[in-house]
Amino acid sequence: MDDTKASSSKDFIRTIIDEDIRTNKWGGKVVTRFPPEPNAYLHIGHAKSICLNYGISQEYNGVFHLRFDDTNPCKEEEEFVESMIEDIRWLGADWGDNLFYASDYYDQLYEWAIKLIKDGKAYVCDLTSDQISEYRGKWNEPGKESPYRNRSVEENLDLFERMKNGEFDEGSHVLRAKIDMAASNMNMRDPVMYRILKVSHHRTGDKWCIYPTYDFTHGQSDSIEKITHSLCTLEFEDHRPLYDWYIEQLGIHHTQQIEFARLNITYMVLSKRKLVQVVENNYVSGWDDPRMPTITGLRRRGYTPESIRDFCSRIGMAKSDNTVEIELLEHCLREDLNKRANRVMSVLKPLKVVIENYPDGKTEELDAINNPEDESAGTRKVPFSKVLYIEQDDFMEDPPKKFFRLAPGREVRLRYAYFIKCVDVVKDEQTGEIIELRCTYDPETRGGNAPDGRKVKTTMHWVSAEHAIEADVRLYDRLFTNANPLDVDEGENWLDNINPDSLTVLESCRIEPSLKNAKPQDRFQFERLGYFCVDKDSTSDKLVFNRTVTLRDEWAKIQKSRKK
Ligand code: ATP
Ligand code: MG
Q1: From CA 537, how far away is CA 548, in angstroms rounded?
Q2: Is the CATH number of domain 4-260 3.40.50.620?
Q3: 90-146 residue pLDDT tens
Q4: Which of 41, 97, 246, 357 lies at a 20 to 30 A Cα distance from 127?
């Protein structure tokens, strides 16, 4: 991930790390981690965190850990662990041997819980969860102490042991830290450390029926791994005093937590919990639907890891919440695809063209440039013959003033081929629909230029009917109609902001034959139409393409209007 350019202008996190290195705070070491909870698929917000944590470990010659914070056995599944590993690797982050699971620390955490009980810093509480929240009070008024708060150490040890042995029902007892029920920070009001959950865990199986809470796990996991800088999003700011409290009570390695703003992008929802609803209500075909902001969805859509990393480095690090325009993400994608995607010709809505003066049965192989941005991509041959397809949109029988494409009597250039002129229009007798154009070509214009210097206003893409392959093409629009989909009034449902027309499937598109052996994930620019990639739904009989992004750079437009 050496293209993480963020170091050129130091953000506040890197400034802190520089200072720590200067003062030799951690003996010059930098150890970062990405700590997802395996309860869903990763999204582009997580990519920001991954790029930040991994990028910093690389820039400072440090170490990067991947740790699954798997403290909630009810919601976690192996499927999510596997998808996260695949996605993080695809993004280009490398954790080497440093793959960890918070669940591997359960024994250690249990011992630490015992220590806190023995030190009079934790107690078993029999209040119900409703009572616990009621006793906790409100942010502007102190809470009330639990009647179980002053149990003896012996009683607490006995009850905690029996919780662990499965003697009690779920919800009947919890272990709580004994801190301060009047603390202004609600997280410090005797938070729950352990709860009884009689469910098996994806890694520890049925070994445990008590599970540590995320808050009793996260900070200590960082500590166990000797993480130097624990970089997390702002919602954990209020949890930091609690993590610090546990670490101080236990006298263990004190990781420095630094918070940064979550990534928000217009027209996207970046919350795992919310994305679960999109998937479970079948608004999309699954986590990897190309309309999803998940890493797996973006990959299937045709995004490159380079474009996502470039985006993450361009947005930089902020200390307060903000929203980035989706157009910037698409701009980064276009820039990258422009360099790497070969150009081909494909016709999405075919209109038949017969070249009347072209010999029957003849085929010419014409030279076409694969990528004008990359000479090393070379050239290829495209077959030309008497019957072609052009785009329906490229012809108008009765064109308005500004329409410069094909029309009756008009001449245009076919890319890499010839000038053609429309001489007749054939219509369906019943419907009046245009079903075929009769054209002539000028043999003198082979390659696309007229020796007499005459000009045409348009160059169009085309395919040879006999040689083209048929494919389905899926066009996507934004998944939400509203730039801030979660921004709804009371009584309204954010899911109503889902765009009902976010997917259009075009069947029987005609694709240049050089793509015959294209494989899922292969990316192309269909000339004049956008960037496309082969979808995994392709079969040996039929290719399926996703449009990754159109060619129009909306970001440039936004930038221009800002300068005004
Ligand atoms: P969500 O709230 O979306 O359901 P989460 O934030 O709880 O998910 P975790 O698996 O806990 O997801 O996140 C792993 C790491 O990714 C955390 O360090 C978190 O701060 C970071 N992260 C999550 N969402 C974003 C985001 N939108 N932008 C930047 N970092 C994020
Ligand atoms: Mg979380």
Answers
A1: 15
A2: yes
A3: 999 999 999 999 999 999 999 999 999 999 999 999 999 999 999 999 989 999 999
A4: 246
As its CATH architecture, domain 473-508+518-564 has Beta Barrel (2.40)
User: How many angstroms is it from 235 CA to the middle of ligand 2?
Assistant: 9
Judging by beta carbons within 10 Å of its beta carbon (0-12, 13-18, 19+), is residue 349 exposed, middle or buried? middle
CA-nearest residue for atom 14, ligand 1, is: 36
- The predicted pLDDT at position 1 comes to 55
Instruction: Output the CA 154–ligand 1 centroid distance in Å.
Output: 39
The pair phi, psi for residue 432, each rounded to 5°, is 80, 0
If you measure from the C-alpha of residue 44 to the centroid of ligand 1, how many angstroms do you get, rounded to a whole number? Answer: 10
Which ligand is nearest to the Cα of residue 236, counting in written order? 1
If DSSP codes are grouped into helix, strand and coil, which group holds residue 303?
coil
Tell me if 36 CB under 6 Å of ligand 1.
yes
CA–CA dist 191, 135 (Å, integer): 12
CA within 13 Å, CB half, 336: 20
Start-to-end CA span in the chain (Å): 36
349: phi then psi, degrees, rounded to nearest 5: -120, 90
> Is residue 291 in contact with ligand 1, taking CB distance under 6 Å?
no
**What token pair was written down for 375?**
């000479």
**What confidence score (pLDDT) does residue 76 get?**
73
Q: Where in the chain is the domain with CATH 3.40.50.620?
A: 4-260
- Choose one of 233, 238, 287, 324 to mutate for the ligand 1 pocket test, by most ligand atoms within 8 angstroms of C-beta: 233
Alpha-carbon distance values, 544 to 200, 271, 303, 525 (Å): 41, 29, 16, 15
pLDDT tens string 415-443: 999 999 999 999 999 999 999 999 999 99
> What is the distance in A from the centroid of ligand 2 to the CA of 486?
18
Q: Which residue has the tokens 């495209």?
A: 382
| Cβ neighbours for 87, distance < 8 A, ≥ 6 positions apart | 41, 42, 294, 295, 296, 299
| Reduced DSSP (H G I as helix, E B as strand, rest coil) percent helix, strand, coil of the chain, to 5 | 30, 25, 45
The ranges of the chain annotated as CATH 2.40.240.10 are: 346-468, 473-508+518-564
Which residue is closest in CA terms to ligand 1's atom 18? 232
Burial of 39 (0-12, 13-18, 19+ CB in 10 A): middle
Q: Which of 43, 44, 49, 70 to mutate to test the pocket of ligand 1 (most atoms within 8 A of CB)?
A: 49
Ligand 1 atom index nearest CA of 262: 28
- CATH class of the domain defined by 346-468: mainly beta
**Residue ranges in the chain modelled with pLDDT below 70:** 1-8
DSSP assignment, residue 500?
A: T
The alpha carbon of 37 and the centre of ligand 2 are apart by a number of angstroms equal to 6
Q: Which atom of ligand 1 is closest in space to residue 36's alpha carbon?
A: 10
- Predicted confidence at residue 306, as pLDDT, reads 98
Which pLDDT value is given to residue 49?
A: 97
